[in-house]
């Protein structure tokens, strides 16, 4: 059975909705995340490490908010930046920009020890990555829902904190990565 | 011979000035840095990885600027933050604070596969860490020397960008970590 390396039951449910709940299970393993300016090498290294630990096909994810004018900041360190300077200060940083395009990104990395169609370059075990992106822009905080950067990320006229959970799931960067992965995995 | 895992000739020279140039050499190995909110686990994981690769006693370092009111931001990700939002924006973030204490920190991690006096907790190989700290505060950028966060870090009345290279070396957080390490290592 495919193992989703996560302790988050919401992530498992989201994955089950794309793959079927007979197909995927959650595996609690705290792999060391590496440092990199983009998500792909981080998720890929995690998938290799987790596959060695678990010995079954694994999926690992990583996600973050990427602000274009800031070369992707906070990107892979979104969680660290949220708990240190906080989301309101990220807005203050972005406010003077004339243009504030940004994206929520999620990368899923898959490893089962076998060759894949489109392997990530580095590393000894083949890994394939699937990316989900939601484009939007950074705005002054609005809305009471969601968490993290949701109040300052606007997509299609509303921030993620102004949307219902159902609307957010519909737009989810993780959902988009899972859809791409599920399509590929069901052929495998 | 002790191997300093770095490609920076300046770091090797600084280490030689504390240990003697018969004692330490530079080893070019690009170990994967892990993510953590503090330097110690990052340097320790690097030392374990490098010791496995090199097979000789190794020293690995990590360094960063820690702003107290921001829970240590940018900390271990100082280099990423510098190349994405830039040093001037870190000053803009800090400007509204009533109090701006900060420190330059360097951690040296040593691993030779043998037991050490005061091992870092996690991990399979014993590692000992040595920390060097220079306290100061964040100020509006001043001075043309140095690099990175030097213009916004004031210690004892001058920013690091207003000091000569000799003065900076005298105050170096890396130098302080090297001094602590050298004292311990010469007993070993």
Automatic annotation (TrEMBL), chains A, B:
Superkingdom of origin: Archaea
GO CC list: cytoplasm
Keywords: Hydrolase
One record GO biological process: nucleoside triphosphate catabolic process
GO molecular function (one): nucleoside triphosphate diphosphatase activity
Cited Pfam families: Ham1p_like (PF01725)
Residues forming coiled coils: none
PANTHER family, A to Z: INOSINE TRIPHOSPHATE PYROPHOSPHATASE, INOSINE TRIPHOSPHATE PYROPHOSPHATASE/HAM1 PROTEIN
Family in the record: Belongs to the HAM1 NTPase family.
NCBIfam families: RdgB/HAM1 family non-canonical purine NTP pyrophosphatase (TIGR00042)
Protein name: Non-canonical purine NTP pyrophosphatase, RdgB/HAM1 family
Species of origin: Halonotius pteroides
Originating gene: rdgB
């Amino acid at each position: 059975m495919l193992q989703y390396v996560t302790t988050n039951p919401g992530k498992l449910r989201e994955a089950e909705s794309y793959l079927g709940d007979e197909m995927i299970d959650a595996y609690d393993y705290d792999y060391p995340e590496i440092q990199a300016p983009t998500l792909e090498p981080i998720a890929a290294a995690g998938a290799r490490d987790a596959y060695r630990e678990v010995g079954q096909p694994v999926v690992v994810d990583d996600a973050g908010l990427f602000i274009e004018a800031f070369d992707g900041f906070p990107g892979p360190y979104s969680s660290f930046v949220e708990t240190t300077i906080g989301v309101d200060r990220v807005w203050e940083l972005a406010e003077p920009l004339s243009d504030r395009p940004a994206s929520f990104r999620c990368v899923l990395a898959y490893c089962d020890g076998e060759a894949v169609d489109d392997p990530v370059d580095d590393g000894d075990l083949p890994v394939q990555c699937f990316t989900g992106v939601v484009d939007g822009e950074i705005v002054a905080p609005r809305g009471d829902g969601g968490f993290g950067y949701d109040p300052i990320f606007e997509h299609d006229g509303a921030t993620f904190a102004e949307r219902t959970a159902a609307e957010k799931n519909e737009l989810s960067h993780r959902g988009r990565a899972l859809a791409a992965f599920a399509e590929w995995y069901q052929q495998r």
